[in-house]
Design a protein that fits this description.
2 copies of one chain form a homodimer. Chain A has 244 residues and is mainly alpha-helical. Chain A contains 12 helices and no strands. Chain B binds a DNA duplex (19 and 19 nucleotides) through helix 2.
Chain lengths: 244, 244
DNA sequence: ACCTGAACACCGTTCAAGT
DNA sequence: ACCTGAACACCGTTCAAGT
């Protein structure tokens, strides 16, 4: 898995110096730079140096940085979606969401990118997948769109939690004590604190991000099951059983 | 020599031309620039010109651009949260989410900012409010955090849909036909299209963003009500009644 | 057609110099 | 202490010039 060569690279030269510049090659290099140094490591100058070419050459294959980032995100998303293939729709949704969560935590730049351009292919693929699963689950026509949207929004919301990278200037403390430090930059007229956050601070410190993400998915799945049950009212109990 | 009194000059002038530079004044100007010209209109040079001062002077009151944006977002969020004050927790959640939705659609820069820095005061305030409402709703202790998180994530996910502004390079068509145009930049090995999106394209074109946002909130509220109903099973029916 | 790389038009941020 | 504004260190992007 670490070694590449998915299909056709098995000829003679594994990697030639003067390989023609391709969009696929550029995207691959971009992903490598992003994975190594984060979002800020991807500049056209660094990318050109990595590919032993000039910065301007890249624009013959990529329109701009936005398209490059979108292509990188789509590449990763395809892998995630292909890896999740359960027969049961609900189980499949759990696999997909868990896979996206893992991808985002492993590569923080992905969260930034998903959130930055909502209509990019990576997000559309995810949306489409959720829509298909929800349809297979038995959600009626008009509610399929709502259900898929809710799942996408939840994933994007979680993605936003992992994008910042170093951008969290005012809240440098990642876990404990961040509430104290963040009370200062409050701007509003009232000096209201965060009563709820202070009360559950213990849970904040101890909680597992992944487990909490899954809990959110379960909440939405329960709500979706209720959509299905609107026609046949008794179906909700079956949905509750599947949720546990 | 003549006037070394540091403070005592401002008597009762309502607004003087040479008002002292304040963080509040800077934030107010920043919001005005953002509302007028979007996120890209806020530069330290434009802000300095608007305040009739030099760019460097701003750094005496604001650490950097991130803190400035966070302060602007917090200012708006305080207004939104203060405007929603229903006694019923579920109704209050609906008011808060609707208010945030309206604020985001009215000012696209707000969506970008909420999503860009998840631990900023504006988001913490929202999270705290959701936590309090969910607690009042009767959700047991351990699930309060999950429920509030799900609501925040949904809002942030929706916020990401409205941030891009002009950044949607590959999908310039906003509504109809965007599926056609976005099939091209697919990167993955398979040339798989978007079967679900194509099938519901009619709904995509006709749907109302605001109504769809509310539908997502209702899905989550139903799931949250089920969390509450785990102990007292009959409470779900009351929740369903409130949902309609 | 593809590539080169210097140059352009911007940023956020800094800092010696003023008041 | 507060302000000034030129200068610095970067960006993404362009484009005349090469091959």
């Amino acid at each position: 898995m670490c070694q590449d060569g998915p299909v056709s690279d098995v000829r003679q030269r594994p990697e030639r110096r003067s390989d023609a510049l391709t969009k696929a090659r550029i995207v691959r290099s971009a992903i490598a730079l992003l994975d190594t140094g984060g979002a800020e490591a991807l500049t056209f100058r660094a990318l050109a140096a990595d590919l032993s070419t000039g910065a301007g050459a890249l624009y013959h294959h990529v329109a701009n940085k936005g398209e490059l980032l979108a292509a990188a995100a789509a590449e990763v998303m395809v892998e995630v979606l292909d890896a999740a293939g359960s027969a049961d729709p609900t189980a499949s949704i759990r696999e997909v969401t868990a896979g996206v969560f893992d991808a985002i935590t492993a590569r923080p730049w992905l969260g930034s990118q998903l959130v930055a351009a909502p209509w990019q292919p990576a997000v559309l693929q995810l949306f489409d997948r959720f829509g298909s699963e929800v349809t297979a689950l038995g959600v009626p026509g008009t509610a399929q769109f709502d259900a898929a949207s809710a799942l996408v929004h939840h994933v994007l919301g979680v993605a936003s939690q992992y994008d910042a990278g170093q951008r969290l200037d005012q809240a440098d403390a990642d876990r404990a004590g961040f509430i104290e430090s963040s009370t200062t930059p409050l701007v509003g007229p009232d000096s209201g604190r965060y009563p709820f956050l202070v009360r559950i601070e213990q849970q904040l410190v101890e909680h597992d991000d992944r487990q909490q993400f899954r809990a959110g998915i379960e909440i939405i799945l329960t709500g979706i099951a209720a959509l299905r049950g609107d026609a046949a009212d008794g179906a909700r109990d079956a949905a509750r059983g599947a949720v546990s």
